[in-house]
Design brief:
Blueprint: H1 2-8, H2 15-24, E1 37-41, H3 48-61, E2 67-72, H4 75-90, H5 93-96, E3 99-103, E4 110-113, E5 118-121, E6 136-140, H6 149-155, E7 165-170, H7 178-191
Parallel strand pairs: 1-7, 2-5, 2-6, 6-7
Antiparallel strand pairs: 3-4, 4-5
Helix pairs in contact: 3-4
């Protein structure tokens, strides 16, 4: 994924982005991702959206994941990340050759490749993503999730997929950021050797 970002997308990765791509995409002996859930917490304006775009495109073009779902608490934020990924793909000759269609209608944005892979945008709500089977789910601005409704809806889309990954991205939250705070606590437990290693 790091090589794809640099050699194909012509992006210069920040050290934290390279480190994260190398570790979040580790695989087990059976080919599944070592980490089924990943929490990325980084300050504003430090490349979080770019990382999400790289990951979405790599999963589609290289890993051949059938469906990437992008969400955010506000749909326009998810659509902004999606638009950046589409712009990257369209401006890269070897990627643009594989684009079958780009649906730009508000609320229905989707990128589809000739081989069938799709990147769709869904609202972060209790109905967001329902009826879909996501291979990669990107939840941006997880700090804004005050309830578990959106998380419960969209993360369930990965249950029947062979190589699923849920990636929650955010900057620092506050005491009302219930999902972020819970995931952060689980991550700390894992680092300390007491949590779920997935």
């Amino acid at each position: 994924a790091a090589a794809f970002a640099e050699d194909v997308l012509r992006l210069h990765l920040m050290p934290w982005q390279r480190w994260l791509l190398e570790h979040m995409l580790e695989v087990t002996d059976d080919g599944a991702f070592r980490f089924r859930t990943v929490l990325v917490q980084v300050a504003r304006q430090n490349g979080k959206s770019t990382l999400a775009q790289i990951l979405a495109l790599w999963r589609m073009f290289c890993d051949r994941s059938p469906l990437v779902i992008g969400t955010a608490q506000n749909l326009d934020v998810a659509e902004e990340v999606w638009t950046g990924a589409v712009d990257m793909a369209e401006s890269t000759a070897e990627l643009s050759a594989e684009i079958a269609a780009v649906e730009r209608t508000n609320g229905k944005k989707a990128l589809r490749l000739t081989s069938g892979e799709r990147y769709k945008v869904a609202a972060a709500s209790r109905r967001g993503g329902r009826g879909l089977s996501g291979d990669l789910v990107l939840l941006d601005e997880i700090r804004e999730h005050r309830t578990w409704d959106a998380w419960a809806a969209v993360t369930k889309t990965t249950m029947a997929r062979p190589k699923p990954q849920v990636v929650a991205l955010s900057n620092a939250g506050d005491s009302s950021s219930v999902v972020l705070n819970h995931l952060r606590a689980l991550g700390k437990q894992t680092v300390e050797g007491a949590g779920d290693p997935s």
